[in-house]
Amino acid sequence: MVNPIAALSENPALLYSSTFILGLLIGSFLNVVIFRLPKMLEQDWKNQCTIMLELEPPSPEKTKITLSTPHSSCPHCQHQIKPWENIPVISWLFLRGKCSQCKKPISIRYPIIEAVTALLSVAVIVKFGPSYTALAALFFTWALIALTMIDADTQLLPDNITLPLLWAGLILSAFNAFVSLESALWGAVFGYLSLWSVYQVFKLLTGKEGMGYGDFKLLAALGAWLGWQQLPIVILLSSVVGAIIGISIIVIMGRDRNIPIPFGPYLAIAGWIAMIWGDQLYSIWLGSV
């Protein structure tokens, strides 16, 4: 019987091309998750409030939003997207970024997310090779992409993603996939408590909430995957990335400084960088102190 991992190891061109195609497909699915998951959460919250307040239930004709229903459609004319109009990147280019029905523009962010997911997936395989560790790292990468975009759009980091990510990191550490169980456990603890402490001190001094609880859970998940040793690198990188992107948004796009900027995307970017180059960065950091 042919070992698929061994076969892919012997054929790098097949390995990277198949990973790229898989990344495009996953990126297309992530676009659905990014758009629909916040709406699904809002839908559930409204239903819970309706039950708690004993209000009249919503109209039964209204379609319940899930990851699979209703079918994808143009937000302008409600034209249902055909399968051949939903091929990652290619369909957007073929349609010239416009709906085939009403010719209104389709956001370029969809093919960008698909392409970025594909490229980061290939980078993961280059780093870890065809292995079970690489499969776990791909899951980690895809979850971070979804969290980055959802937080950027809504300033929410859904428990539906952060908590499974946290538990997955702890379970994988029991098999020493990335770090030991002890390192992962304390990484989760210190990751959560570090931002929670900053939140409490900031609130005590200013009376304002500087970040949300989702940020605590995300850093706890990063600690579970990468170990407590990488937390200083993650926090430092997220601060640097946040400063660069935040200043760029204010200067280039003229965004109001008083509008809050979500911290989750910077944590996610820093976490992914730490997974790929964390050991090198940690050695450089130790050498400079």
Describe the fold and architecture:
The chain has helices at residues 4-9, 12-52, 90-94, 109-128, 132-154, 159-173, 181-206, 213-226, 231-252, 264-288. Helix 2 (12-52) crosses helix 4, helix 2 crosses helix 5 (132-154) and helix 5 (132-154) crosses helix 10 (264-288). With 289 residues, the chain is mostly helical. The mean pLDDT is 89. The protein starts with a helix and ends with a helix.
List the main descriptive attributes of the protein structure presented here:
globular, 10 helices, 289 residues, single chain
SSE diagram, text form:
Blueprint (H helix, E strand, L loop, with lengths): L3 H6 L2 H41 L37 H5 L14 H20 L3 H23 L4 H15 L7 H26 L6 H14 L4 H22 L11 H25 L1
Helix pairs in contact: 2-4, 2-5, 4-5, 5-6, 5-10, 6-7, 6-8, 7-8, 8-10, 9-10
